[in-house]
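Example 3.2
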Amino acid sequence: MRLPDPSGSRVVLVGWSAYDRPDLADLPAVSNNLVGLASTFDDPRFSTVPPDCVTILADPSRPHDTGIEMTAAASQASDLLMIYLAGHLALGAGGEPVFPLTAAENDPRPGNLALSWVAHCMAQSTARHKILVLDAHLLCAADEVGAFGQILVGLCEQIPGVSTWIYGSADQELYSQPGFTATAMTGAMLESVHRGDQREPELDLVRLHEYTAHVMRRSLLPTPRLYLCEQARLALGSQMGWLALFGFMPVPPSARDAALLRQLRQDAADAERNYHLPVEAADTYRALVVASQRILGPDHVDTLRARQHMARWTGHAGDARRASREYQRLFEDQRRVLGVDHEETVSTHNDIKYWSQR
């Protein structure tokens, strides 16, 4: 396994969380996807790609602007090109998969980003290794998921030289699971990356897929599908191996990250004092959880405690069902890490019973 060439690698992260459209529900977890991925690529303990080679597009509203960024990355990449897309995915005119865009100001007709255009853009790139990651909420009925999936897989398998990693669910609650700060797939992927001390030092796409699927199966979730192109299969069979997308250097967090944690903890404490603003408190603790999982690790006691506060304020914000499920997932992790008789595990077990009855 080798590291990507820094000067010849480009990563584009695209996600839609706020649509400003009456026909589409917002997906707040996608915003956490982008924050988690961006901060991970910016963390020298994990990233194999320089931060200035990573482009983040949050809630793009114009296909032309999005296309410019993708085209630039595709033309500049000579070694690794990775494009990540998360949000609602629909079947447009002619049955073509499209990502609906955020409504632009003063534009009565929001646009779409056609997946076939992204495929064409990547196929034209001369990068040696090309990866397309799709983490999508499918806009279709439950009995139409199979047909939608066949269209999606058929399109992705036809992209020459591109390996695709796909997760799609028509169940919005399954797509954005309580207890995951990010979406189910991306949250599991980030957890796998951030468990650097519990895995091999470097992760290529195949190993990342395996770890992510393990985390999702542990939560009884469907797992993503990985389709390797011929070039990737040949690279895996060679002595050199494939590219490491993420690594792990066992060094303490940076001073910048330590300062970030202090600030987020202070923000959370300030939010808690405003008991009449529980939504703000829940969101603040959710930001703290996202940062703690990366900086301290998913199993660190401070990360677990931040999740406990996040679940409590989620309940006080009026979503007792989600709070109960967040506590349930926390309880499973506390039982594994702290033990079933630990006082914090026992407290969480009591909280499950309390919120499940609300």
